[in-house]
């Protein structure tokens, strides 16, 4: 199922965070609970909440237990993935992943796998720690018959205000968050009332890698929370097409400064020579100059680089070009790799064009442009890596 996004010069500011990504001094946190003293954790205990314990190198609880990573040991970035191995031991609950926890009086989320007799990947919002132990469900799948006799890997990936939940590597649910998680910690909340349930191998990975396949799990468009828009677009799983020429530009939460790479995978389904979508880079705002890179199949298979005076200058001025070969109808990847003032254009991983930027452009945003409308040209994915 596809959904159309007709968003003319609309910024989804309410769903976006303008804070820049900053790499933590440690990019990965991991604990296999081999140290029963939990030196990396900060337990909370008060009233109904009990401290977490370790049994046989697994986190357990005989009562409600709540523990978060000690901020002095690890700082969670704006974009991250948290995962752990959960075992319900045949009971109706699993330990849950906590995200966005700031203090006992502030709201936060829990990510869950098992509710009742069946599995149900879900996310709950809690108004505070002590007065809202159960939380309110904000998103969930239908019941899924996960095997309760074996452990499962539960993970959540957070990008700006969107959370994606996976079980054993398979994505099941995406939802928008209404609470900024920035500045909050991640952790484990176990309200199973049974020390038979366990959590193990807790991992958090901070990331400055953005990837997009243009669909949530239900096949609807996922152009939300990350972009400024012009144009008219349709989206589906690995399928972005344009109904009207326009741009998708990443917001300021992904800062394309320093050395980085921007890439898109596209497919031509027309059977004729066509232009690829363009990669926008070194973009600041609608009134400033920037570059685009494109494969122009319609002009004898050439990689081209254009300098644009501002966003209204969609045609731009060509500053470099090189004859190349593309597959024609199979998927191809176009990438722009920035190293200082050196710009390399890559096709399927091979360098096809090099350019030295002497214009001093310092824009730190990237995106996609469809210069002309052609629904036979499909963008399958978009990736930004620092």
Question: What can you tell me about this protein's structure?
Answer:
- By secondary structure, the protein is an all-beta fold.
- The protein folds into two domains: 3-17 and 210-385, Jelly Rolls (Sandwich); 28-207, Jelly Rolls.
- The protein has no helices and 31 strands.
- The protein has a seven-stranded antiparallel sheet with strand order 3-6-15-8-9-10-11, with no helix packed on it.
- β19 and β20 (239-244) form a beta hairpin.
- It starts with a strand and ends with a strand.
Q: How many strands in all? A: 31
The named CATH superfamily of the largest domain: Exo-inulinase, domain 1
Figure out the total of helices: 0
On the 0-100 scale, what is the average pLDDT? 80
What fraction strand?
A: over 45%
Termini gap: 33 Å
**How would a textbook summarize the main sheet?**
7 strands, antiparallel
Q: Helix amount, in percent?
A: under 10%
CATH topology of the largest domain: Jelly Rolls
Helix and strand content put the structural class at mainly beta
For the largest sheet, list the strands in their spatial order. Answer: 3-6-15-8-9-10-11
Which oligomeric form is depicted? single chain
CATH class of the largest domain: Mainly Beta
The poorly predicted ranges are 1-26, 217-222
Global Rg: 23 Å
- Whole-number total of structural domains: 2
Choose one word for the global shape: elongated
CATH architecture of the largest domain: Sandwich
């Amino acid at each position: 199922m596809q959904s159309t996004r007709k968003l003319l010069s609309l910024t989804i500011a309410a769903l976006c965070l303008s804070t820049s990504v900053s790499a933590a001094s440690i990019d990965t946190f991991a604990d296999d609970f081999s140290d029963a003293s939990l030196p990396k954790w900060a337990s909370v205990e008060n009233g109904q909440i009990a401290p977490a314990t370790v049994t046989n190198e697994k986190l357990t609880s005989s009562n409600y237990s709540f523990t978060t990573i000690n901020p002095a040991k690890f700082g969670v970035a704006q974009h991250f993935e948290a995962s752990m191995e959960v075992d319900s031991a045949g009971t109706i609950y699993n330990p849950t992943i906590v995200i966005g926890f700031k203090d006992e009086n502030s709201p936060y989320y829990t990510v869950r796998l098992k509710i009742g007799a069946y599995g149900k990947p879900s996310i709950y919002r809690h108004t505070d720690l002590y007065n809202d132990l159960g939380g309110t469900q904000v998103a969930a799948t239908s019941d899924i018959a996960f095997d309760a006799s074996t452990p499962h890997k539960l993970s959540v990936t957070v990008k700006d205000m969107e959370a994606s939940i996976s079980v054993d590597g398979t994505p099941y649910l995406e939802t928008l968050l209404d609470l900024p998680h920035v500045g909050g910690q991640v952790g484990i909340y176990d309200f199973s009332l049974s020390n038979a349930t366990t959590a193990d191998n807790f991992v958090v990975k901070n990331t400055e890698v953005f990837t997009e396949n243009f669909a949530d799990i239900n096949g609807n468009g996922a152009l939300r929370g990350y972009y400024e828009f012009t144009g008219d677009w349709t989206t589906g799983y690995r399928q972005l097409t344009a109904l009207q020429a326009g741009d998708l530009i990443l917001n300021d939460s992904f800062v394309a400064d320093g050395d980085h790479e921007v890439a898109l995978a596209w497919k031509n389904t027309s059977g004729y020579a066509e232009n690829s979508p363009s990669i926008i880079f070194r973009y600041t705002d609608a009134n400033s100059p920037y570059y685009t890179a494109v494969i122009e199949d319609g002009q004898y298979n050439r990689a081209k680089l254009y300098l644009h005076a501002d966003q209204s200058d969609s045609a731009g001025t060509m500053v470099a070009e090189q004859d190349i070969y593309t597959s024609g109808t199979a998927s191809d990847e176009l990438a722009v790799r920035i190293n200082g003032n050196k710009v390399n254009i890559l096709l399927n991983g091979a360098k096809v064009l090099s350019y030295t930027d002497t214009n001093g452009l310092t824009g730190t945003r990237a995106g996609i442009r469809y210069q002309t409308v052609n629904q036979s040209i499909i963008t399958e994915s978009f990736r930004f890596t620092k």
